[in-house]
Design goal:
mainly alpha, 77% helix, 0% strand, elongated
């Protein structure tokens, strides 16, 4: 399987796994933003992961915009929407797939020793 297809396949767990946790929480608590934030930062470990993902999302959004423009990636709004609605785990592999597609799926061959 080539790198482009690996990125596309990674979009599946990147969307399914986060939502496997979020949908049951949403069914139990509804759209309760204050409870969501309270539980997101419930302790130092969850806060660590929350800040890590939030900062990563901002970095990925900037990367998608700049690299997408530089490389002429089409549909660059899709991974941006993916980051905002699912998360980095979906938006980043989706962008990398689109980027590989824009490059024609060709990868630079590794140097032979």
């Amino acid at each position: 399987m080539n790198r482009k297809n690996v990125y596309l396949v990674l979009c599946i767990p990147g969307a399914v796994l986060p939502y496997s946790q979020f949908v049951p929480w949403l069914m139990e608590n509804g759209f309760n933003a204050s409870l969501f934030v309270q539980q997101l930062f419930a302790n130092r470990i969850s806060g660590f992961f929350a800040w890590d993902v939030l900062i990563s999302a901002v970095v990925v959004l900037g990367f998608v915009r700049s690299e997408g423009k530089r490389m002429g990636v089409k549909l660059v709004w899709l991974p941006i929407l993916g980051v905002l609605t699912v998360g980095v785990s979906f938006g980043l592999p989706l962008f990398l797939y689109l980027r590989e597609r824009a490059l024609g799926g060709s990868a630079i061959a590794p140097a032979k020793a």
